[in-house]
Amino acid sequence: MLKKALADFEDIRAAVRERYGAIARERGQVSGNCCLQNSAPVSSCCGNVGSTRDSAALLGYSEEDIAAVPEGADLGLGCGTPLPAAALRSGETVLDLGSGAGFDCFLAARQVGPIGKVIGLDMTIDMVVKARRNAIAGKYAQVEFRLGEIEHLPVADTSVDAIISNCVINLSPDKPQVFREAFRVLKNGGRLAISDVVTPISLPDEIKSDLALYSGCLAGASPISDLQAILEECGFRRIRIAPKAASREFIKDWAPGLKLEDYVVSAVIQAIKP
């Protein structure tokens, strides 16, 4: 059983890495279908149909946010901005889990200022390369991008003030390990501010076992009660999981016709390391 479980984990990681590597190489302009589910199209992976500018606006980013980042940093991915919940302050160190081409990192850099630091982490080498080029283009000296998995953070213990993430933790096949690592690297009093997909109920097995729906930010959605329990077991306190019912309007476009918006909703997840 253990060998089978580990193989399943690696299948998921490989599918996610392949899909988002392709998005990075195609500069976010994915032609055709993002994924296939039972030979039917899944039109968008953790993102929205239409231009990246339209997508960012749907996810809560302002026109000023969109204009402030280097061209190519916004790939139209995600399920909602985590930055308002993060309440970042000047001089803080911020870690972005699944940083993609750097969109949220560059916005965070504006808030922590030149004396702060932003670390973007992604397991897809094409994304890291793209993000580093964007950082050079935008002259973001306080932002760095690291290649690695969110289950095994290449970050020192108690070194981070805030962790942000936008629709990435659902892609992990080992979410308890992600949050254990997050707890490890946060300072005492450090905080999580995450936007991710959740579900009020457990998903049907045929959905959870579909790799295309997993890499499309649908099959990996955690039940809210499970997520609450995981965070508590890891030691987090002041946990708040706030689903956003309006997000179902764009989630329905991720897999048209499958009615997965009846199961999955975006939520803002906050917690503190005491």
Describe this protein's structure.
By secondary structure, the chain is an alpha/beta fold. It has one domain: Rossmann fold (3-Layer(aba) Sandwich). Helix content is 36%, strand content 22%. α1 runs parallel beside α6. The protein is globular, with a radius of gyration of 17 Å.
List keywords for this structure.
Rossmann fold; 10 strands; 274 residues; single chain; alpha/beta
What's this, in brief?
The protein has 274 residues and is an alpha/beta fold. It has one domain: Vaccinia Virus protein VP39 (Rossmann fold), CATH 3.40.50.150.
Q: What is the makeup of the main sheet? A: 8 strands, mixed
Using the CA coordinates, give the radius of gyration. 17 Å
Helical content band: 25-40%
Q: Bin the strand percentage.
A: 15-25%
Query: Which blocks of ≥5 consecutive residues have pLDDT under 50?
Result: 28-44
The H-level CATH homologous superfamily, spelled out, is Vaccinia Virus protein VP39
Molecular shape: globular
Number of strands: 10
Q: Terminal Cα separation, in Å? A: 36 Å
Mean pLDDT: 89
Write down the domain tally.
1
Q: In DSSP terms, counting alpha (H) and pi (I) runs of 4 or more, how many helices?
A: 11
Assign the CATH topology: Rossmann fold
Order of helices and strands: HEEHHHEHEHEEHEHHEHEHE
Question: What is the name of the CATH class?
Answer: Alpha Beta
CATH-defined architecture: 3-Layer(aba) Sandwich
Structural classification: alpha/beta
List the helices and strands and how they pair.
Blueprint: H1 2-25, E1 35-37, E2 40-42, H2 52-58, H3 63-68, H4 83-86, E3 93-97, H5 103-112, E4 117-122, H6 125-138, E5 143-147, E6 160-166, H7 175-185, E7 186-199, H8 205-208, H9 211-215, E8 222-223, H10 224-234, E9 237-244, H11 248-251, E10 265-272
Parallel strand pairs: 3-4, 3-6, 4-5, 6-7, 7-8
Antiparallel strand pairs: 1-2, 7-10, 9-10
Helix pairs in contact: 1-6
